[in-house]
Amino acid sequence: MSPVDEGADRRQRLAAAARRAPGFRLASDRVLPRLRANRTLTDLVWRVFDPDHGLGVARRPFRSAGADPDAELLPVVAFVLLGADDATFARALDAVCALRDETGAFRPVLVVDRPDLGAVRGRGLVVDHVVPRDAWTGDAADHDAYVGRRLVSVVDGFRTWHLVHLGPDGEVPAADARLLRAVRPAIESGRTAGRFR
After folding, report:
1. pTM
2. Domain contains 146
3. Range of the domain at 133
């Protein structure tokens, strides 16, 4: 038996012993979900045990207008809409808000290159802005690299779970919409099985 196998075997025996310990079921079914639901304690644990590392981007606080307190437990999904005209922007904003309201399964961040930040925030979404291609003074390749860095910043800073590139018509692609509609039932089944809250 290799040392790796011996270590894994020890961990399995220790986990089995912990599951047999008195009070384990109470702690896992009642105490831990209450601790996870405590916003102050969760914030403290994130600050102490999850230092910002990775790509060097500081974690950004996620606060949107009228956010449900339980929304902090939902995954963050970033929607990217670049180079859109007014009509496409309005359709995209409606589509993202409709999907969010329909599913209640994610916290949206909209990445745009338009000056309409107030319109996005007014609908309860968090917005991240990139410099538009036509306002960029350098090479086009430099702009692509800049947008790539900004998207990495969104993923790292907001701890994004999924990145959706909205279609040219402003609609959420069908595959992404199906995925996001499947999140809420998975969360609810996890809660009833005692894995969440």
Report:
1. 0.65
2. yes
3. 69-192
Residue 156 · residue 78 · CB < 8 Å: no
Say if residue 29 is in the same domain as residue 73. Answer: no
**Structural domain includes residue 60:** no
The pLDDT tens digits of the residues spanning 96-110 come to 999 999 988 888 999
For residues 83 and 176, state if they share a domain.
yes
User: Is residue 45 one of the residues assigned to a domain?
Assistant: no
Q: What are the tens digits of pLDDT across the range 50-88?
A: 555 443 334 445 555 454 545 667 888 999 999 999 999
Helix (H, G, I), strand (E, B) or coil at 80: strand
Q: How distant, in Å, are the alpha carbons of 24, 26, 30, 160, 193 from that of 15?
A: 11, 16, 19, 31, 19
